[in-house]
Write a structure and sequence with these properties.
The chain is α/β, with parallel strands linked by helices and about 550 residues long. The protein contains 16 helices and 22 strands. Strand 10 and strand 11 form a beta hairpin. The chain is globular. The protein starts with 5 loop residues before the first helix and ends in a 55-residue tail after the last helix. The structure holds (2E)-2-methylbut-2-enedioic acid. (2E)-2-methylbut-2-enedioic acid binds next to helix 10.
């Protein structure tokens, strides 16, 4: 097992006893800044400004995203906009934020449709492992939570949004618990809280290492039992407007029936999540297959400003080996309970609870400067010394707290309680997104946005566990705002898209991306729609020949 890394593993084991006694230092602000600028992918220069739309000539965007934002719609120019479905509120996105919005509309008397390009729940929410932050204890407070997140975000967070997030912690946990979410608890019944990078007190609630999955489980059940109409496998292709910049609906590609449908809505809530599957600069990702930044592209064509999209989060501990797990999340929580980050020479080169961006950059530095471990397929990573979890917390602690991790690695004959894991940063979170106000309203009237598709809340570096809180607080808030401010139904046109099409630079690129390139999944919406062929034997009684010997005996004969 991992014979190719034998020498390095021996060095790691050799330094373990000393490392158990001494923590590695957190870099000073000056050191952190220098590491970030030299090694963090956000600073690598793979970005450019846009030539069209609300952000033209301003902030820079990653090249892959910039191309999509300036791309052309795949919608045929001949598309007509008569409504196939009329609803009051159209929610686009079936992850935690969309589900929370749908639930908050219950009882309002408004008809709601929730459309998702995959199935309800297929989202980054289910990929979140380590937990959700909420200030619940006596030694904690929303103010303290706010201060931690603001420092972590390099002071760039939109403070009005951040305040709402932190003040919404306790109520969100109460709501989730009422829905049946089973957070880990201590023997005395209180919530079991862990620390995270940048939390000044333990504030992270978890369900082992499948917190997002458990949260989505209860949200999904509740949405299925609600009055919301669920449109699964409906891919949002374009937003519709009233001809005067108010968003009034959307065009979807119904994958099951291979047809385009128009939905007319009085309000649209975008909750389409992140964009890790764009795999910026060739990075692997911890994101769900649906995370291709579609909502950013759709909103941009409607005149919405985007914020902070020069900033992405590369989670320091993505799996680097075995190849089949490359990019998958190895939760930060495992570092918070003692797993150390160690280079090929057995050196504990940085404190594993440093801010995510700094730690990711420091890992990249080690690998670039020749202190990484090379896998048989040529990937380079550093060690996460997972056996230290049991050494620090008692035998069995790792298996009890991180069953998902154990399950994934044991298939490859690696027991993380006994053998360290090789890690490398993985593209994890879209720090920026659509600009929204405190009511989740975008620049386009009629269009609200919530969750990872929005930008500003987390500044330039989100702390662990603040995204699961974000989707609950702002998913519900978007719905509340819609209830109070819902416009009258407007006309359905493609005016905003047509204007955008005229002004965009010529390129062959079509967007949104819909599916990751690597998945080879594509939307073929120009194909003529064909009726399924009906076999002649099922065309009614005329085609039925009772004397045909291949027919079964008549079950109705007396
Ligand atoms: O919020 C996150 O990104 C998170 C909880 C990740 C993790 O490491 O588990």
């Amino acid at each position: 097992m991992m014979q190719w890394a034998k020498e390095s593993l021996e060095k790691l084991e050799g330094s373990r006893a000393a490392r158990l006694q001494q923590a590695a230092p957190i870099p000073s602000d000056a050191e952190a800044e220098s590491i970030l600028k030299k090694f963090h992918p956000d600073y690598s220069g793979n970005e450019r400004t846009l030539t069209v739309g609300a952000n033209a000539g301003e902030q820079k965007f990653p090249l892959e995203l910039a191309d999509l934002l300036e791309g052309d719609s795949p919608l045929p120019t001949s598309h007509t906009t008569a409504a196939d479905i009329e609803t009051d509120v159209l929610i686009i996105g079936g992850g935690g934020a969309g589900a929370a919005a749908a639930l908050a509309l219950e009882g309002s008397g408004l008809k709601a449709h929730l459309a998702t390009k995959l199935r309800l729940g297929d989202s980054n929410t289910v990929m979140a492992e380590g937990g959700i932050q909420a200030a619940l204890t006596e030694n904690d407070s929303p103010r303290r939570h706010f201060a931690d997140a603001l420092v972590g975000g390099h002071g760039e967070n939109t403070t009005d949004l951040l305040r709402i997030l932190c003040e919404g912690g306790a109520e969100s946990i109460r709501w989730l618990s009422q829905l049946g979410c089973l957070f880990d608890r201590n023997a005395d019944g209180t919530f079991h809280l862990r620390g995270g990078g940048g939390t000044s007190v333990p504030r992270v609630l978890a369900c082992r290492d499948y917190t997002g999955l458990e949260i989505m489980r209860v949200l999904k059940d509740a949405v299925r039992l609600s009055s919301a109409n669920i449109l699964e496998e409906h891919v949002a292709v374009e937003l519709l407007d009233d001809g005067d910049k108010t968003v009034t609906g959307a065009v979807f590609f119904d994958r099951k029936n291979s047809r385009l449908i128009n939905v007319s809505a009085r309000a649209v809530i975008l909750a389409t999540g992140g964009s890790g599957q764009l795999r910026l600069q060739g990075f692997p990702t911890s994101n769900h297959v649906g995370a291709t930044g579609d909502g950013l592209v759709l909103a941009y064509r409607q005149g919405c400003r985007l914020a902070f999209l020069d900033s992405y989060q590369y989670h320091p501990s993505g799996a680097c080996y075995p190849e089949a797990l490359a990019g998958q999340l190895v939760t930060e929580a495992i570092r918070s309970v003692g797993a150390q980050v160690v280079n090929a020479d057995g050196v504990h080169f940085i404190n594993e609870m440093a801010y995510r961006d700094v730690l990711a950059a420091a890992i990249i530095k080690e690998t670039r400067e020749g202190r990484g471990v090379t896998t048989p397929t040529g990937k380079i990573g550093v060690w996460l010394d997972t056996p230290m979890v049991d050494l620090k917390n008692g035998e069995g602690a790792l298996a009890k707290q991180f069953p998902g991790l154990v399950h994934r690695f044991e298939r490859y004959d690696i027991d993380p309680a006994k053998t360290p894991i090789l890690i490398y940063p993985t593209l994890h979170y879209q720090n920026g997104g659509i600009s929204v106000d405190t009511q989740c309203q975008t620049d386009a009237p009629g269009l609200w946005a919530c969750g990872e598709v929005t930008g500003g809340l987390h500044g330039k570096n989100r702390l662990m566990g603040n995204s699961l809180l974000d989707i609950l607080v702002f998913g519900r808030r978007a719905a509340e705002s819609v209830k109070e401010n819902i416009p009258e139904r407007g006309a359905l046109t493609l005016n905003s898209l047509n204007q955008f099409r005229k002004s965009r630079p010529a390129s062959e690129i079509k967007s949104p991306a819909f599916f990751p390139v690597i998945s080879k999944m594509k939307l073929e919406m120009n194909e003529p729609v064909t009726e399924p062929e009906i076999p002649s034997s099922s065309q009614g009684s005329e085609a039925f020949d009772p004397s045909d010997p291949s027919e079964p005996p008549d079950p109705f004969a007396r």
